[in-house]
Amino acid sequence: DEEELQARFDAVIAADQKIEPRDWMPDAYRATLLRQLAQHANSEIVGMQPEANWISRAPTLKRKAILLAKVQDEAGHGLYLYAAAETLGVDRSQFLDDLDAGRQKYLSFINYPTLTWADTGALAWLTDGAAIVNQVPLCRSSYGPYARAMVRVCKEESFHHRQGFDALWALTHGTDAQRAMAQDAIDRWWYPALAMFGPPTRDSVHTEASMRWRIKRFTNDELRQRFVDICVPQAEALGVRLPDPDLRWNEERGHYDFTEPDYDELRRVIKGDGPAGRQRVAHRRRAHQAGAWVREASAAHAAKRRARAAA
Ligand code: FAQ
């Protein structure tokens, strides 16, 4: 009965083992996973847009090849994550419909524009860096398909992060104008990256349950602090300034003190506001419609193969 199933589920979680698709799980656990997995997958595919914006204008063939590979990786991440989410019994087309209808979210940073070439570097250094800090603990998430998808995703994110650092390094070791362009991009991307970790823990509606279920391993604030601590020495190595006059080492805490992002702005951007919000959703819908013939052709091809195999 239900009580026994619940006890078995609790025991798997307590033993730090994995819940698998065929296992019984509480409805709320399943709903939270679907919500987070869909948001995560959506972020990967809508997140292709800010950088794809620069593929045709990359300064060298090498930078173009790197950027192309990164954007393609993000499409791949979206696919692994939709596949992981489908193990919970929802069809991928439903996720895409929900995304296009605005019923499901994607991460806030994607609603900011990439104004210069340096933005591709700053975006990758900061937001992929934040994504790694957030996702490494998700490799130990209690839901098996999510945890396993994260292992490969994290390896690829690590390449994305390093190439962003490398692109910025080239600029900060270039001309004065290039250095200024890198600094300007970092000034604009620092707070969107800090906001990726979500609302402060005290306002986070899902943290308590997600940590109890071991979907999340750390609170939003713990991960945000870890990210700040990692970024400071990297910024020093790059020779750039992080745009926070109150950023300083706190000996007592053993962490950097920093100014929190503007959480009212985060709330607005989550709802679809943000300089590029409408453009991202409109582009996503257009791209989906433009790809209808590919989906139809592959369905027709699959039907033909099935018919041939049956004959
Ligand atoms: N933006 O109670 P909490 C990448 C929502 S992309 C938008 O704290 P939770 C590729 C949250 O969903 C990064 N919404 O929620 C790339 C919830 O809404 P709901 C991939 C946000 O779930 C890189 C509500 O606010 N990683 O790597 C945000 O416990 C570079 C309440 O919040 C992920 O997607 C936000 N920043 O914790 C591409 C991370 N924050 O559903 C291009 C996976 C919160 O109640 C360039 N997700 N919300 O309506 C997570 O880890 C968690 O869901 C959190 C939020 C940490 C985002």
From TrEMBL:
Annotated GO CC locations: cytosol
GO biological process, one term: phenylacetate catabolic process
Superkingdom classification of source: Bacteria
GO MF term list: phenylacetyl-CoA 1,2-epoxidase activity
Protein name stated in the entry: Phenylacetate-CoA oxygenase subunit PaaA
The organism of origin for this protein: Streptomyces alanosinicus
